[in-house]
TrEMBL record, chains A, B:
Ranges where the Transcription regulator PadR C-terminal domain occurs: 92-180
Entry-linked PANTHER family: TRANSCRIPTIONAL REGULATOR YQJI (PTHR43252), TRANSCRIPTIONAL REGULATORY PROTEIN (PTHR43252:SF4)
SUPFAM superfamilies, per database record: Winged helix' DNA-binding domain
Record organism: Streptomyces purpureus
Name of the protein described by the UniProt record: PadR family transcriptional regulator
Lineage top rank: taxon: Bacteria
Alphabetical list of Pfam families matching this protein: PadR (PF03551), Vir_act_alpha_C (PF10400)
InterPro entries, per the entry: Tscrpt_reg_PadR_C (IPR018309), Tscrpt_reg_PadR_N (IPR005149), WH-like_DNA-bd_sf (IPR036388), WH_DNA-bd_sf (IPR036390)
Domain spans labelled Transcription regulator PadR N-terminal: 7-80
Length: 189, 189
DNA sequence: TCTGACTAGTCACATTCTTGAGTAGGGAGA
DNA sequence: TCTCCCTACTCAAGAATGTGACTAGTCAGA
C-alpha cells in the first residue's frame, strides 16, 4: 500500500507526468522506492479517481500530449496520516546476495564477474547521486543547507541512497577480491 | 523467482524444517531475502515436487512432528544455473524513507519518533549480526577466516547485513537530529 | 533513407507477497 | 488452574508487483 505514498511524496515538489515520474523513480525516488512505469500510470489513475492528485492535459505540438499531476489537499492529508502510522521494517532483496550466500558451494567465476559489474554500477550511481546532492543544495554547504534549506526531504533520502550505493560498491569489491584470492589459493593446492 | 533460490541457498549447509527456516529468514537469511513462514512452507512443497529438495519426517514425542528438508543434486544444479544467470539490480523499499522524503511538507514529530525507534532496532540487529559473525568465524580473525574458512558464504552476506544495519542506524540518528534542530529553529522565529 | 532511441502512454496476464485465521499439544509462570 | 507463548504447520483470499506486447509520432545519426 505504500507505492501510492511514494508517488504522493515524489509529486510534492512539482507537477509531473507519468513518464517523468517514471524517470524520477529510476533516479532520486529509487532511493526509497522502486516501481515500473506501468505501475505508476495505474497508480496515478487510481489516485486521481480518489481525489488525492489532479491531472491536467498538456497539448504538445511535436510530441505526444501528456497529463501533468499534482497532489491535492486530500493527498497531502493522506500523506500526513501515513507519516503518523507505524512503518513496516525495510528489507533487502537481492539476487546477488543469494548467489554469494551459496558462493563456496557453487562455481564462483560468474559470481565474481557479477560482483564487479555491480560494483561499477554502484560507483556510477554514487556519482550520479553525489551530483544530485550538489545540485539540490546549491551554493550552501551541507550543514548549512540542512539547517536552513527550504526543502530537505529529497536531499535526506538521497543521502541514504548515496550511503547505500557506496557501501554496496565497497562490499562488492571486497567480496570479489576475497573470492578471487580463494580461487587462487585452492588452485595452488 | 528468487525466493526458491534463497531457500536453496539457506538449506545448503544443513537440514531445516519449514519452521526453522522461517527463523533463519528472520535473522541471517534476512540479510539477503525476506519471506513469511507461509511462503516458505509453500515454496518447500513446490521445491519438493520438482525434486530440488527432499524432505523426511521426524517423529517427535513432546512436540509436533516435523519435516526436515535438504537440497538434492538437482537443487544444487539449479543454484549453479541461477548463479551464472544475470542478476536483477537490488533496491530499497522503505516506508520510513517515503516519510522522510515528505518530511518538510508534513508533520515531523511522528517521523522523528519512528526514526529513533528504527535506529534502536538497527543497532540491536547490528549487535546480533556481529555476534553471529564472531560465532561463524570461531577463533580465527576475519582475514584468516575469509582466506581459509570452510564455508564463507553466510559470513559474507552477514557482513553486508551488518554494514547495512550500521549505515541505517547512523542515517536514522542523523536525520532525526537534523529534523529536531529544524523544529527548534523554526519555533524560535 | 533506414535504424534506433525518445516521448508518452495502455492493456492483459501471471506471479509473488501479504493478511488473517485456524489446528493442536506442551510447558512455564501467576 | 488459567493464560500465554512455543513448536509446527495449513488454507484461502486478496493486494501488490512484474512481464511482455503494442501504439504512434519525432528526431538524430550512419
Amino acid at each position: 500500500m505504500a507505492l501510492r505514498h511514494a508517488v504522493l511524496a515524489a509529486l510534492l515538489d512539482d507537477e509531473y507526468s507519468g513518464y517523468q515520474l517514471a524517470k524520477a523513480f529510476d533516479i532520486g525516488v529509487a532511493n526509497f522506492w522502486h516501481a515500473l512505469p506501468q505501475q505508476l500510470y495505474a497508480e496515478l489513475t487510481k489516485l486521481e479517481k480518489e481525489g488525492l492528485v489532479t491531472g491536467r492535459e498538456v497539448v504538445q505540438e511535436t510530441r505526444p500530449n501528456k497529463r501533468l499531476f499534482r497532489v491535492t489537499d486530500a493527498g497531502r492529508a493522506e500523506l500526513e496520516r501515513f507519516a503518523a502510522a507505524p512503518s513496516k521494517p525495510s528489507f533487502i532483496r537481492d539476487d546477488l546476495l543469494v548467489k554469494v550466500q551459496a558462493a563456496d558451494r557453487v562455481g564462483t567465476a560468474a559470481v565474481i564477474e557479477q560482483l564487479e559489474e555491480r560494483a561499477a554500477a554502484a560507483a556510477a550511481k554514487s556519482e550520479l547521486l553525489a551530483a544530485l546532492l550538489r545540485q539540490l543544495r546549491g551554493d550552501a554547504d551541507e550543514e548549512e543547507f540542512l539547517r536552513s534549506g527550504e526543502r530537505i526531504g529529497p536531499y535526506l533520502t538521497c543521502l541514504r541512497g548515496l550511503a547505500f550505493e557506496r557501501e554496496h560498491r565497497d562490499w562488492c569489491l571486497r567480496i570479489a577480491a576475497v573470492l578471487k584470492e580463494r580461487r587462487t589459493t585452492r588452485a595452488e593446492r
